[in-house]
Amino acid sequence: xxxxxEEAPExxxxxxxxxxxEKRKKRKKGVFSLYKTEKDKVVRLRPxxxxxxxxxxxxxxxxxxxxxxxxxxxxxxxxx
Length: 80
Ligand SMILES: [Zn+2]
Prior knowledge:
- The protein is of the alpha+beta class.
- 18% of the residues lie in helices and 22% in strands.
- It has one helix spanning 10-23; strands at 35-38, 41-44, 58-60, 64-67, 73-75.
- A three-stranded antiparallel beta sheet has the order 3-4-5, with no helix packed on it. Strands 1-2 form a two-stranded antiparallel sheet.
- The radius of gyration is 24 Å and the shape is elongated.
- Residues 49, 51-52, 56, 67, 69-70, 72 line the site of zinc ion.
């Protein structure tokens, strides 16, 4: 008896591939999301790091901002 190794049906393989790609959602990321233009001036939507200087944006973590470069954390001031 010659037993051939079982081959996965192509259909199943394709379905898995599709499911995997669907899981990976494309997140828009880039510097363009950090700036906003108002008339003729550019507004930065994120604060820059005090330690690293301008050019290093801080990540928005809800109640605080953190710098991905030096780890500096600045809490947002309660605005009320
Ligand atoms: Zn920093």
